Amino acid sequence: MRTNIVHIGAGELSYEIRGIVTIAQKLQRLGIKVIWENIGDPVAKGETIPDWIKAIVHEIVEQDCSYAYCPTKGLEQTREYIAALNNSQGGAQISADNVLFFNGTGDAITKIYSLLRREARVIGPSPTYSTHSSAEASHAGMPPITYRLDPENSWYPDIEDLRNKIKYNSAIAGMLIINPDNPTGAVYPREILEEMIGLAKKYDLFVICDEIYQNIVYNNTVNVPLSQVIGDVCGISLKGISKEIPWPGARCGWIEVYNAGKDPCFDRYIESILNAKMVEVCSTTLPQKAIPKIMQHPNYQSYLREKNSFYERASSLAYEILSPLKDIIIVNKTNGAFYMSVVFREGKLKPNQRLPIANSMVEEFVEGLVHNVPLDKRFAYFLLASTGICVVPLSSFCTDLFGFRVTLLEKDPTIFRTTFETIRDNIERYVQSA
Questions:
Q1: Is there a cis peptide before residue 151, judged by omega within 30 degrees of 0?
Q2: Residues 37 and 123 placed together within one structural domain of the fold
Q3: Of the given ranges (24-33, 191-200, 283-292), which has the lowest mean pLDDT?
Q4: Would strands 389-390 and 35-36 be described as parallel, antiparallel, or unpaired?
Q5: Exposure string (b/e) for 4-37, b if CB count within 10 Å is 16 or more?
Q6: Which of 120, 163, 171, 266 is the most buried (most CB within 10 A)?
Q7: 21 and 38 inside one domain
Q8: Highest mean pLDDT among 29-33, 134-138, 326-330, 365-369
Q9: Is 191 found in the same domain as 79?
Q10: DSSP of 330-365, one letter per residue?
């Protein structure tokens, strides 16, 4: 074209969580039965929405106002409820004006990064949820800046690595925390969060904390919300209803802004996000109307406890099945969210390893995919073709570690056990094939 129309950050946009679906669908057409372990959709994995939640939604659907626009920031009554819920936990206090709704947290993430000054960078964890790393890198037109999560230490952040990255890179203006973490399932102790906030305060950074899994915590672990440790540091918390209710199709998430008014530069930045939402008019109305009714329902807390008990059992079983391979992989029992990240130990993956593939057409197709790809992607493709199990290569989560992410969502206990036992057996078979 006469003028280059491609955004400088276009090459940084990737989402292997759904990207591998294209490969899996082609294998389906060739006769492979796929077990989808790539995406965190509880409904797609068999979670049933309780009748009392459906009744609330049905009641709201009958109201004409649920089909209308809502205010740009979101419904005032719902924002007041969310502010009051935050304030009841102690820590940083907010008002309804500090709550802003989006069409899902993905929409919020895109706005948060795209409206930053191009030279301003946000350092994020590695591995990290790829929507964050892609959006940040796309905004800057450069690869992400990351700090290390340590698989040998429960996937907790390497504070010294974080400190040095911030100290010696003046372009870093913000810090991303994902807690509970996706893709690792880690939940950070208060002292680690306080150290991270201390670094933000010392170097005058703002903090983004993705807390979408805030209520999915188990194994007697306590989740510490950002509001309780943020102090007087400027911060943004990302929350939503896609996981815990679960209602991912509602596309309903929000941000909570902490310490508004403390820094004029931060305030102007938040104002630009609000202005961007004004251009879009508003976010989804119906799910916003449902949030207070669902969260205040007498069955809600018991519903969360039941969900967390399920994930606790799933986490323990997955760890029990995979942990005997400690000489080949690093695996941690998860304490939050519903993912598990497994890392191959250094040197265990090689470019000539493979798994047997019964279907010759599938074998030919996969052989055409595995040239010059990361070694964990090669493993994921062979696992998919040989067993039908679709996992996400860990290298897709902005890390140089080789491994894979798998979910803990499968509701059928027989399928769950068989899936993880099949993964375990094929890890051994793949490594021994060299």
A1: no
A2: no
A3: 24-33
A4: parallel
A5: eeeeebeebeeebbeebbebbeebeebebebbbb
A6: 266
A7: yes
A8: 326-330
A9: yes
A10: EE----BTTEEEEEEPTT---TT-----S-HHHHHH
Q: Which among 262, 295, 328 is the end of a domain?
A: 295
How far is Cα 256 from Cα 105, in angstroms, rounded to an integer? Answer: 12
Q: List the helix and strand counts (H, then E) for the chain.
A: 13, 14
Q: Residue 4 corresponds to which tokens in the numbers above?
A: 């280059």
Local structure of 273: helix, strand or coil: helix
Query: How far is 33 from 261, CA to CA, in rounded Å?
Result: 55
Distance CA(237)–CA(259), nearest Å, equals 12
3 occurs within a structural domain: no
**Angle at the Cα of 223 from the Cα atoms of 218 and 225, rounded to 5 degrees:** 155
pTM for this model (two decimals): 0.95
Amino acid identity, residue 178? I
At position 7, the amino acid (one-letter code) is H
**Do 404 and 378 contact (CB within 8 A), yes or no?**
no
Q: Are residues 32 and 84 in the same domain?
A: no
Structure tokens at 123: 């350092």
Using CA atoms in the order 295, 298, 301, 303, what is the torsion angle rounded to 10 degrees?
-100
Q: Does one domain contain both 100 and 232?
A: yes
Report the CATH number that the domain containing residue 170 is assigned in CATH. Answer: 3.40.640.10
59 and 134 belong to one structural domain:
yes
Q: Based on the domain organization, do 228 and 362 belong to the same domain? A: no
Residue 212 in domain? yes
Range of the domain at 75: 51-295
